[in-house]
Amino acid sequence: MQRSKADWKALRELIGISTGSLAALLHKNIATIQYWENPNDSAVRYHPSDHAWEVLEDLRAKQINTVNKIVNLHVDKMNEAEARQRSDQNIPVAKLTYYRNRARYYGNKPEYGDIGILNATMRQAAMKLGEKGIPVEFEYDDETESEK
C-alpha cells in the first residue's frame, strides 16, 4: 500500500515531533522533511524512505506504550480508591506534567527526546483517561517541583 504525504504529516503531528527534531533524528535537512509533506511536490525522490517510516512508526509505538502505562497506572489508582472508600465520588485526579518551554524540559535530561512528543503523549493520555471517567489536571513541571 502506497502511503501518502498526508499520512506522513498526520503521523508526525500525532506523535508531536517537529520537522526540525525529526530531521535531526533522521540526519536529514529540514527541507527534506518539508518536501516529504508538500502535496505540490510529487517527485519520487521526495517521499520518505522505508527507514524514515520505520523510525516514525517506532516513535508512535513507544508513544502508545507510554500512554497505556499512564492510563493503566491511573485506572489502578482509581480502582484502589474505590475499593477503600466504596464511593464513586472520590475518584483520584490524574495529574499529568506538561512542559511549557524547551529550556526547562531539556534541562531535566528527558528520556523522550523531544518536548513535543512528551506533551502530545500527555494530551493523548488525558483523552483516554477522560474516556474512562478519570479526571485529569495538567500541571507545569515547575509547579510540580514547588509543591514538593
Structure overview:
The protein has 148 residues and is mostly helical. The chain has a single domain (5-147), classed as Putative cytoplasmic protein (Orthogonal Bundle). The chain contains 7 helices and 2 strands, in the order ααααβααβα. Helix 2 packs across helix 3 and helix 4 (50-85) crosses helix 6. The radius of gyration is 19 Å and the shape is elongated. The mean pLDDT is 85.
Question: Can you describe this structure in just a few lines?
Answer:
With 148 residues, this protein is mainly α. Helix content is 63%, strand content 7%.
List key phrases describing it.
two-stranded parallel sheet; single chain; 148 residues; Putative cytoplasmic protein; 63% helix; mainly alpha
Strand order, largest beta sheet: 1-2
Strand content: 5-15%
- Would you give the CATH topology? Putative cytoplasmic protein
**Could you tell me the radius of gyration in angstroms?**
19 Å
The CATH top-level class label: Mainly Alpha
Main sheet overview: 2 strands, parallel
